[in-house]
Amino acid sequence: MLGLPEGTRACLFDLDGVLTNTAALHDAAWKATFDEHLRERAQRDGSEFTPFDPDADYATFVDGKPRDAGVRDFLASRGITLPEGTPDDPADQPFDEVTVGGLGNRKNQQLLQRIATDGVEVYEGSRRYLRAARDAGLRRAVVSSSANTRQVLEVTGLAEFIEERVDGVTLRERHLAGKPAPDTFLAGARALGVEPGEAAVFEDALSGVEAGRAGRFGTVVGVDRVGHADALREHGADVVVTDLAELLADGDGR
């Protein structure tokens, strides 16, 4: 009834874009942060201001990655390199002193403001799927690069369905490599006491399905919210659905 292969004992869910629509909030926070930095840089050196593309740039450079990696990779695409700094650098650093850590914290500040103002939307098909997985006795963990995972799970009421959490805080504390490396999903499987081949990974980001494939998980389910089903398959998804409820209905992914 869950649309998963026989022998599956656990489910590892990404958060943003799979269980919740926080991806839209992340996208807006990244755009506000990067555009402010890029606009000031253009004004200072007399170059043309090219804004952050909320579709192409978000999907290619930041979606599914740890915050500092998103900052580093997007700026590198524009030929920009900043000092690394530290995870505790202030969000209000002046332009001449800005670091990867500080710009990442500025993005997080933007995100938290949006969560407080707009709230967080839960995909109801995902809530249904979580409930069904729990009732079927499958183990359940969230594996996300977001450092705000715990707050989002609590605010949305999804925490009751989740047994373990591997998130941005875990990455920092354990020095785990972020997606597309499989380290976070492997940590989630260990936390649930299952082998990778016994677990299903649910991901909407290309880097996430790559991580699931690299970790040799039993099934990688791609969740296509933005019309990139073919890309999800190319990067490693075994099956692609537009909503987890499709798996409950007949197990027929598209």
Verbal overview:
46% of the residues lie in helices and 10% in strands. It has 254 residues and is of the alpha/beta class. Strands 3-2-1-4-5-6 form a six-stranded parallel β-sheet, with helices on both faces. Strand 4 (199-203), helix 9 and strand 5 form a beta-alpha-beta unit. Helix 1 (22-45) crosses helix 4 (100-118) and helix 3 (67-77) packs across helix 4 (100-118). The longest helix has 24 residues, at 22-45. The protein is elongated and about 60 Å long. Mean pLDDT is 94; it is low at 250-254.
- How would you characterize the largest beta sheet? 6 strands, parallel
Quaternary structure state of the chains depicted: single chain
- Percent of residues in helices comes to 40-55%
Question: In what range is the share of β-strand residues?
Answer: 5-15%
Question: Which structural class do the helices and strands define?
Answer: alpha/beta
Give the radius of gyration. Answer: 18 Å
What topology, given as strand order, has the largest sheet? 3-2-1-4-5-6
Calculate the mean pLDDT score and round it. 94
Shape: elongated
Spell out the helices and strands N to C. EHHHHHEHEHHEHEHEH
Distance between the termini: 17 Å
Number of helices: 11
Identify low-pLDDT runs: 250-254
Tell me how many strands there are: 6
